[in-house]
Amino acid sequence: MTQAQHSPTPSHDSPLPPARGAALSRRHLLTSGALGTAAASGGLLLSTGAAEARSGGGGGRQGRLPRKVDVVVVGAGISGLVATRDLLRQGLDVLCVEARDRVGGRVLNHHLRSGGVIEAGGAFVGPTQDHILALAKELKVRTFLEYNEGNSVYISSLTGRQEYSGTVPPDPTILPDAAILLTRLDSMAAEIDVSAPWSHPSALEWDAMSLGEFIRRNALNSSGVGNLIKSWTQPGFGADPDELSLLFVLWYVACSGNETTVGTFSRNSDTANGAQESRLIGGSQLIPLRLARKLGDAVALDAAVQRVEQKDGRVVVRTSRGTVRAKRVVVACPPPMVLDIDWFPRLPVRRTQLLRHMDMGQLMKCDAVYETPFWREDGLNGFGINDAGAARAVFDNSPASGDPGVLLAFVGGSTWRKFGPLSRKERRAAVLEGFAAMFGEKALKPIEYTEQDWTKERWTGGGPTAFHAPGTLTDFGPAIRQVFGRVHWAGTETSTYWSGYMDGAVRAGRRAALEVGERL
Ligand SMILES: Cc1cc2nc3c(=O)[nH]c(=O)nc-3n(C[C@H](O)[C@H](O)[C@H](O)COP(=O)(O)OP(=O)(O)OC[C@H]3O[C@@H](n4cnc5c(N)ncnc54)[C@H](O)[C@@H]3O)c2cc1C
Fold it and tell me: For bias kind Polar residues, which ranges apply (predicted)?
């Protein structure tokens, strides 16, 4: 299959003519805290960002690739681009080769026909994600607060529809279990060394168990609270609690902090003060697009790496645009994609096993677009959880201006397995029904509907991240950052904080560049 057939452009429909233009609502600026950032530019940033993102996949080197450089970086996602930038800053000659015809990898802007930009991949940023926030600031990409005023909606097959505020829905059949479980997860996670979760004294025991099993052992109403926790794991991992190693989940919670702030479940799962607190004006892909533009000739698109050969003290990297020799290589692509490369000598067995056991989650984003975010007028913030149906975890995904209104459903894990294979028409109907159950009949009539299925992406293979099933982190985890001859590993999955996130991608790129710098 060709690259073009794997085009990342989301499918969408709209009865409206394109480009209505994004208007920056004063009310939203005042309530979102974006005043002083976007307002300072008179709304210009929004349209600048949109025009910029439309202008292409990130430019880059035209014509033949150089015959040799100091370092080849594989993958122009955020991690690879950051590694490239840091290596260039060290005065090295660097080439970042990217398989797609665009930069950004799992970060992708989608331009709405009705005006405005939303994110089809990575979107949210929050406190302790210092690295992505610093990069955004450096590249003059502003943040805005995710709309979070008013109540959230919770729908239970047992107790019906409820509006609530705070982290956990006040469902009496679930609340006591949830309170105990989340406290336990936090206290166990607090003991984990984020750089070596396999070294915890209980690592083997915790890694032998799935999160689902842990819930069944420790909750009175395990199916109720398990179902609730699914609405966290499906968007967060693209997987269900039974698929995830407990140790891996504890590590993930521990990673939801930084060097001075311990990771917690609520920082990972919440909007206020959590990982979903803010988004980026103009869409998150502005970050890799602007970074790639600064890197210029150091980035080559449409250059899929096919073979990496280490011989005679050099690395020979064969790409679809030609062969480049280097002293060192940084690999910054998703774990399963590393296995698609032909390695000589072969990857060490432990690394191969690690990669084989790090599958990508199954996740798609389904967005419905409305003239206005009508749920806000009803005192709802657009966040919702449902224990059934296609729309189990729902967010307000409107652009910074709040115009148009956008509702987003994460369809992940077993929900993806049920609704992913349906026809687009059937899935659209199921998603809209889910929105309507939360926010009323108006949700059934969007002016546009768009979806992005990451499992269909040739160069990603799923999302949002690769995860560990029980029994694999203790056995193979220690290989995660182990240098292989002249080959170093970046990519969000190799990060020690915010692994699986854009912040982790930046951290991993920086660490890999330092590693290489020390050896050249
Ligand atoms: C639906 C979804 C929602 C998400 N939500 C959030 C969120 O809200 N907040 C957040 O922080 N994160 C989120 N994430 C995760 C975040 O997007 C990723 O963690 C991050 O973008 C990963 O960056 P990366 O550079 O490590 O990898 P990638 O972005 O995957 O980049 C890897 C690059 O390598 C390229 N590549 C692969 N194979 C080859 C090859 N053989 N040769 C050359 N190039 C190759 C790929 O094309 C790609 O460009 C989400 C992800 C998804 C999919």
Answer: 1-12
Element (H, E) at 90: none
Mean pLDDT for the stretch of residues 223-246: 96
Rounded Cα distance between 25 and 31, Å, is 10
The full set of domains in the chain, from first to last, is 4-127+134-143+281-356+472-519 (3.50.50.60)
Task: Describe the strand order of the beta sheet including 342-344 as a list of residue ranges.
Answer: 322-326, 314-319, 305-311, 342-344
- Pairing between β-strand 405-412 and β-strand 363-370 as defined by DSSP bridges: antiparallel
Given a contact cutoff of 8 angstroms between Cβ atoms, the answer to whether 403 and 415 are in contact is no
The rounded distance, in Å, linking the Cα atoms of 258 and 252 is 12
> Which residue shows structure tokens 């689902």?
212
Does ligand 1 have an atom closer than 6 angstroms to the CB of 334? yes
Residue 189, token pair as written in the block: 């996670």
| Atom 50 of ligand 1, residue of closest alpha carbon | 122
Q: Which two tokens stand for residue 37?
A: 């950032």
Burial of 185 (0-12, 13-18, 19+ CB in 10 A): buried
Mean pLDDT of 424-434: 98
C-alpha–C-alpha distance, residues 54 and 282, integer Å: 11
52 in a known ligand binding site = no
Residue pair 423/81 in contact (Cβ under 8 Å)? The answer is no
Is-above-0.85 flag for pTM?
Answer: yes
Tell which residue, 330, 363, 345, 343, has the closest CA to residue 452.
363
Pocket test for ligand 1, best of 97, 106, 141 (most atoms within 8 A of CB): 106
CA dihedral for 250, 251, 253, 258, sign (positive or negative): positive
Read off the pLDDT of residues 268-303 as tens digits, 9 standing for 90 and up: 999 999 999 999 999 999 999 999 999 999 999 999
Give the chain's count of helices (H) and strands (E): 18, 23
